[in-house]
Design a protein that fits this description.
4 copies of one chain form a homotetramer. The first copy, chain A, is built from 16 helices and 18 strands. Chain A is α/β, with parallel strands linked by helices. The longest helix of chain A is centred in the middle third of the chain and has 19 residues. Chain A starts with a strand and ends in a 5-residue tail after the last helix. Strand 11 of chain A pairs parallel with strand 4 of chain C, so a sheet runs across the interface.
């Protein structure tokens, strides 16, 4: 795995992010129409390998329904506004209309409201009624309690998610979630994460999960990286988790999907995640820009409201198109944020591969992340000469 | 070829772009007057190794004529405005006067107008009348149809160009262009591209083409890179294609020219492309700034009008001088965008080489792309102390 | 230790800074409540491994008392305003109200006032009265004189500090401080620095000091680096000093603490310093932003007033919270500058370690320092998706 | 010498610039008062190893006199305004008062005026009268003619300088300067350059020159790099030339000084050049800011007026202090642009060396050139904590 001397007697691996690699075109090209980008987990199968993140500015009941109808999967956060408030939209109004200065404190206040179990049940049933798969998430501490409720209410997939999740949690005072027992108790597929290393990934797979979320502090500007110093760029993290998946498959015969989560905005980033070994990707900000997103052009993280250590502000992302346009086009923007499905297919076409699994082996180069200076030069570089 | 661990079990090569390398002066210097920078393809020979790209803001009939008279070669796009409209200038007016917001949609509308075969014939004859070589281009899907028309009308060179072109195209529903048959059918030289790898380059050479266009997503800000994740920086791409050219020459006895296409703006970039192994370069934006350019100071890519996935906006580049000044000076700007021919000769003079083929072996160093911070420091650095 | 060719026959090691590395989450996670971040020197023990730097905008008597009560340690500069002026606050007013242009000259003037021995005694006693440990510092040239005075007055720790301190100082005209004799004469623990190399660190440890300050020109924008060309990024410097500590422990049986000093602003930087091998960190700017800081939102270095070669301007850092909030939260900012103790614990929790000594062995990756371009992208990246 | 794969079958060395390295403090420190930074060429000896570049905004008769009196050496350009115009100050007024747009054309016009031999004689005598060493320069094509005139008039040092100078110049129509014969004919020391490679440096030394100027396209923003693609970062270039010097000394017994020329602005850059092996440095912009500089706060290169390919604009650098302050302080700026002599001594003090020759072996590290983002963070980093 290489490694470079960082100190006199200490080596570190170099980890790579999306901005630092590029995909190499193949020796053949393939008609995008012939390319299959579907993804499945358990018995459920999806047209596109894209999940919408369990964030309150992105996924509500309606968004989850629309996403499902379009062939994707949205995850509803059971620890968010939707399950704390009977009428979440009044609360979102408050977030949206708060000033940048107040936002953190207002978010902290709003998320102090307790989660109601009856709302968990209610939201799941609302989505279920539309006959689309229902995925919900919560943090490990609440999984044992909310898991059975969600399953009972009709959820199809349960996601256990925190900044860092490992198979083993050590505490002298709190009871840790036994993920292995939890997976056995649940009759629906469990997705867990996030993690970034081979070993942590492998051990999580051994607990019985069906898919793994990959991504901790992916970018240099990430708050996890800034505030805690912790993080691994996503190309390397995804590749390492994918290596664990392949090795686990060899020894167990069971295929656990890798879902790269975080750090992707453009279609190019998604393509690079798939080429790094991801079976699917989980996206937040791109969907926060959809007309269907409850955040109305605003986006915030679930850690922004942390009482002790709030991380990541509320951000104005704007509304740029419908969910359908974002997923399937036609694109009206030229920045790679729309028609993500076609972008994946076109990329695979150039790389000469026709399934996501083949995409896992596409050649990459390490390419400079440095962009030319000066607006003129950059603008000119952006011109795509050829159709 | 080296390679670095990007993931636990996965290596990637480091690819280099123009900003990251610099040419090393030679052990002797040569009088620029004694330096030969001519280039040839088939029986045609050109004073300068510079082609103007088949873009609608750059090349029209008049531009192609002026370029030919000055010893260069301009390629007219058969899929552009010139062959869709009897009077293309009214349409260009519309593009130029549209707002930035409307530009993509207006371009999409304009390029919906069908291509007229009689206009293909007409444009070629208009250029031909001026007694300069005529080069035209189209995408692979239209080559079989437009190739014979163009040749019949008097074209001297035919260019088959798409973002990525490979010798093999796989489709379950569409007929693929058989480039080998096409080259055999055409009696004029065929140029094809773009490609960026050794293998793809070698296989394209085997089809019988006379020259190869090299360049896919060259820069970090490139739309192909941003939207699709695909691309290889140009120094490495050119070197790899040049290696294929040299190996193919050894086995076949036939020399196929390498034309580096894209990512170059200044004379310095062109010099680096030649030192990477290019026989010639294809330039867009530098020519969009010519008084003779039909775009009137605007520049846009052929993919901007893509119905599904528009890539790259219309950019205001301004008009900075005549085509003659851009190619042969005297330069009135000090930024390396004028007097390109003299810049190449001066560079070769310092490198101690007197032909383009010798330039292919000039030593390079990897030099930091990072520019000093602060305008003052940068301005001061720009001062060329010595004549 | 590796090394790369910088010149034809000359190699240099690559040194790394905080921005270039990131910590890798562990295979287990630990309850932050169970994590011990205490630190000790001699018989004194501290709740948190954070020292406040001996800078006049940061530490005065009151600040030192508050810091001590909160379980940390502040160092009072014996060569600063507090010991030159009976009423230092009038002088600080002058600094704070000077224009940016005047600031250097005003600082030069203010620091021309001689140091008064009676004020040394007075300040130490003022702190001592609050029953918190007293730490004071001076430059090597003054140590022999001020050391005994400070010890006599009740100081608990004495710091000998200059930009670069080595065990051996060569001068034809001045008497050099013999650090070994000095340590023997002093009955309280001596901390010395700064240094950045293994050998210099080892030799300083041999003089009998209890802790070593590490850091010379840590960042690229550092004035020591800019003005003198001298400096070593902090991750590498800390690792090398830590290697010296470990080797010195093996041969002498004595453990000398490593205190990384300089270049850290966020909690993330502190976590990386600890993971590089530091036992504690010394911080300036983060504390200059405390309500208790004497600088009232302004911050300046002790070299700004240098008569010959002033380095580093007076900077407006603003006042963002109380010292308590900065150390223990609750954080009201999301940028990693508040609740540093909890940030360290959370980071260690994710890394799966429960003591600072274990933190010394946490895995790092080299991760790109390059941040995405464009405010939108950066803002979105800052969102912490998961709690 | 290492090397990395840039293309499939092509390697390139990595070359380093000032921004990418930093000096490592030594194991001992030395009293700056005991440090010797003198430099000599032939029989002439100078207090400081700093030359002022032969640029028209920097050196005129008066500046050369002041520089000489202060123990340095200024080179007067025989191809500049001073020898073209009886009254050069009227012409400088015109340059200074021209708009940015006109500047290139006005410079081109001004430098069309022929050089007058009587003015060469006159300027040299004017400097000579002040009893300071006189150094003058011209381009290789004029050396044969101007050399004897200058020597006759009393010049002490003759500089032959062009962007790239090699021992061998090939031309079918022009007579090349035979540098070996020239050196033999001249009874005063000859300095020649610029060059950047070991071989070119070695061959130039063999012609009999006393000192070598090193530097071609040192920075990424350099016009030679931008316009022509040619250049080598200065740390590597200096190290390679110094290796040639050392090898040439071994075989010939003759020591040829290395003068690093270009790319340095702060004292830190100068210190790094000396540590790379330079015996002295040649500086332009830092002196253009002196009150004594004829450019009155403006600075331009000798290539700005090139008729064919003007490179590098006229830049407003401002006037920041007297020449004495720039060289010997006291500094009133904190950015490393003043008190250069003391900066060199302080740097050498920290590195533990007392002569320039010892400085040649000081350890360097490769340190990231990347500066932290955000003005606040940068400002805070600039604070020099310790005196």
């Amino acid at each position: 795995m290489g490694g470079y001397y960082v100190g006199r007697e200490r080596k570190a691996r170099r980890a790579y992010g999306f901005d630092e690699v590029a995909l190499v075109p193949g020796d053949k090209t393939i008609d995008p129409q012939d390319i299959d980008i579907s993804w499945k987990i358990g018995d459920l199968s999806f047209k596109i390998p894209i999940l919408a993140a369990a964030m309150d500015g992105v996924v509500d009941v309606n968004f989850a329904i629309q996403m499902g109808k379009l062939g994707g999967l949205a995850v509803l956060n059971l620890g968010g506004i939707q399950t704390r408030y009977e009428d979440p939209y009044r609360v979102i109004e408050e977030i949206v209309h708060s000033s940048s200065k107040e936002a953190v404190e207002i978010l902290q206040k709003i998320y102090r409201e307790p989660i109601k179990e009856e709302l968990i049940e209610k939201r799941i049933k609302e989505i279920k009624k539309a006959k689309v798969p229902v995925a919900v998430s919560c943090i490990p501490q609440q999984a044992k309690k909310f898991g059975p409720i969600a399953q009972e209410a009709g959820a199809d997939i349960f996601v256990v998610q925190a900044t860092v999740v490992t198979a083993k949690y050590v505490s002298s005072s709190k009871e840790a979630l036994d993920l292995k027992s939890f997976c056995q108790q649940m009759s629906i597929p469990v997705i867990a994460g996030n993690c970034v290393t081979y070993k942590a990934a492998y051990e999580l797979m051994e607990t019985g999960i069906e898919a793994l979320l990959v991504g901790v502090g992916p970018g240099a500007a990430c708050t996890t990286r800034e505030v805690l110093g912790v993080g691994v760029p996503q190309v390397t993290a995804t590749m390492d988790a994918a290596a664990a998946r392949d090795d686990y498959l060899k020894s167990s015969g069971r295929y656990v999907s890798i879902i790269t989560d975080g750090g992707m905005i453009t279609g190019g980033d998604i393509c690079k995640a798939l080429a790094s070994g991801a079976d699917a990707v989980m996206i937040g900000s791109a969907f926060a820009r959809a007309k269907e997103a409850p955040g109305k052009g605003y986006h915030w993280g679930m850690a922004t409201s942390d009482e002790n250590l709030p991380r990541g502000a509320r951000v104005r992302v704007g509304t740029t198109g419908t969910l359908k346009e974002i997923l399937y086009g036609p694109a009206r923007l030229d920045d790679g944020s729309q028609n993500l499905a076609w972008a994946i297919k076109t990329s695979m076409s150039y790389c000469g591969v026709s399934t996501i699994k083949q995409m896992h082996n596409v050649e990459m180069v390490i390419a400079p992340a440095i962009k030319s200076e000066g607006k003129f030069f950059q603008d000119v570089q952006r011109i795509a000469k050829i159709r």
